[in-house]
Amino acid sequence: MKSIFTIFAIGFLTFFLIAQVNAGNAMKHTSEAMEHAGQALAHGEDGQAKILKEHAEQSLKHALEAENAHANSHHHMKEGIKHLKEAIKHADMDHPAEGAKHMKEAIEHMQTSTI
């Protein structure tokens, strides 16, 4: 029984550490998008269309990467929540094996949401 708690503790620690890395990656792209957007604005106000375009394209590239990171995370977390609710429902019906199946799915989706 003690080893089960150790496994869960390690699993959740790993989950939260990976989540920090993923959040950092999305934040990095958001930061890059904002930096290039600011530079595009400044060059546009100075009448430099070519440089505005270059920075706007870089901003768009990073904004799309940030959007993808957030969307993927959101989708998998929603799926994880759905399986957690199903696991609880099956536990209430005294169906532990079916509940465990949903818990495995929930864990997989929550872990994937951090990648």
Any overview of this molecule?
- The chain has 115 residues and is mainly alpha-helical.
- It is built from 3 helices and no strands.
- The protein has helices spanning 2-45, 49-92, 96-112.
Please write out the topology.
Elements: H1 2-45, H2 49-92, H3 96-112
Summarize the structure.
The protein contains 3 helices and no strands. It has helices at residues 2-45, 49-92, 96-112.
Attribute tags:
mainly alpha, 3 helices, 0% strand
Distance between the termini: 30 Å
Beta percentage is: under 5%
Strand element count: 0
Work out the helicity level: over 70%
DSSP helix count?
3
Work out the radius of gyration.
21 Å
